[in-house]
Write a structure and sequence with these properties.
eight-stranded mixed sheet; binds pyridoxal-5'-phosphate; Aspartate Aminotransferase, domain 2; about 375 residues; 15 strands; alpha/beta; Aspartate Aminotransferase, domain 1
């Protein structure tokens, strides 16, 4: 039997048309008509002014920090409950991360913890240069509360929406609220270009500069002229072709991901020790991965037992403030002294297979095996 994977790529077939076009015109080099179209399509889909397509989501975050002029020693606030790519670019600039806890309603940045962190930073006269919020597993954070705090202290927000393309908060696309938003098109994301990313903004000027910085900061001259250091961060014209076709099926993929979540929810509704990931009122998650919390059982043990049955599950993100690489970094709990919410999520959570090509049979199989494992684990 084939292994049931967590979230494998799902091509529509139309990708080949755009790849073929690039081949037919021999436009293999990075940049070209597919990149231009992919940027336009992404801007239209998200209703933003400007988009720069990049070779990874991580590169897009790095560019956002460069555009905000982050300097060595600057502080960057970041959600702790995320993948390390959210904050790695801050380390490239020798900036200092401060991690903010998650909250139960969204699993994203806690406005309460952010408020305390900002108050303390203001007292010390060391406000952060940027706040990186992460919409995790497709779920929006409490944008009104977070943006109100950021605006009160006049701190730019970078929205890491790598996992949340197509999700909305009060009808508006995630990634379009802050100074900058970023998306990822890595192989496991809701749509993919095999590898890729995008930086978006409602301001055109910084996106022009992002394109400049991501093409080795080459000045417009007859010869190669460089006044500052740049990067090689642009998306290739072939991969952008995959992106154009993938974007056309994004809404279908979201509908399927949400149906997968609903099916799991139904399958587990009579099991009291399984809690599904919440969805905040007035938000719509793309349900990139169906994730659950499990009481009174060890998720690692369940993951391994699932693996023995040909099912790929995964633990939730280990909070960044618990990572050895960040052991010296400051961390603000959701409620001071009450214990970290992100740590509790990590200790209890599991991501279940959520590939949009899963059959009903496969999904029922995962549900059945989960139920068997839970029955077994809770009577020992
Ligand atoms: C995938 C991911 C990224 C990084 O994207 P890449 O395209 O792999 O560089 C950043 N942040 C989060 C939360 C992600 O899940």
């Amino acid at each position: 039997m084939e292994k049931i994977l967590l979230s494998p790529p799902h091509m529509s077939g139309a990708e080949q048309t755009y790849i073929d076009k690039a081949f037919a015109t021999n436009w293999i080099a990075p940049l070209g008509p597919n990149v231009d179209q992919f940027e336009q399509d992404l801007a239209a889909y998200n209703n933003v002014e400007a988009v720069a397509a990049t070779n990874t989501g991580t590169a897009a975050i790095h560019l956002a920090l460069k555009l905000l002029n982050v300097q060595p020693g600057d502080t960057i606030f970041c959600s702790t409950f995320t993948f390390i790519a959210s904050i790695n670019p801050a380390l490239y600039e020798k900036a200092v991360p401060v991690f903010i806890d998650a909250e139960k309603d969204t699993w994203g940045m806690s406005p309460e913890a952010l408020q305390r962190a900002l108050e303390e930073a203001a007292q010390k006269g060391k406000l952060p240069k940027a706040i990186i919020i992460v919409h995790i597993y497709g779920q929006s954070v409490k944008m009104d509360e977070i943006m109100a705090l950021a605006n009160q202290y006049n701190i730019p927000v970078i929205e890491d929406a790598a996992e949340s393309l197509g999700s909305t908060y009060k009808g508006k696309k995630l990634g379009t609220f802050g100074e900058f938003g970023i998306y990822s098109f890595n192989g496991n994301k809701i749509i993919t270009t095999s590898g890729g990313g995008a930086l978006v903004s409602n301001k055109k000027t910084p996106i022009h500069r992002a394109r400049f910085l991501s093409t080795q900061a080459r000045e417009q001259r007859e010869y190669y002229q460089h006044v500052e250091a740049g990067y090689n961060y642009r998306l290739s014209n072939i991969l952008a072709g995959i992106g154009i076709a993938q974007l056309q099926v994004l809404e279908d993929r979201i509908a399927t991901k949400r149906a997968i979540f609903d099916c799991y929810q139904k399958g587990f509704q009579d099991i009291p020790n399984i809690t599904m990931m919440p969805e905040l009122a007035d938000t719509k998650s793309n349900r990139w991965l169906t994730t659950v919390l499990i009481q009174d059982a060890d998720p690692t043990e369940i993951m391994n037992k699932l693996s023995n049955k040909g099912i790929e599950a995964r633990l939730l993100w280990k909070p960044l403030h618990c990572q050895p690489v960040f052991e010296d970094c400051q961390f603000y709990e959701h409620i001071e002294g009450a214990g970290s919410v992100a740590e509790a999520l990590f200790a209890q959570g599991l991501c279940l297979p959520s590939g949009t090509q899963m059959t009903e049979e496969q999904q029922n199989y995962v549900i059945t095996i989960m139920r068997e494992i839970l029955a077994e684990v809770s009577c020992t």
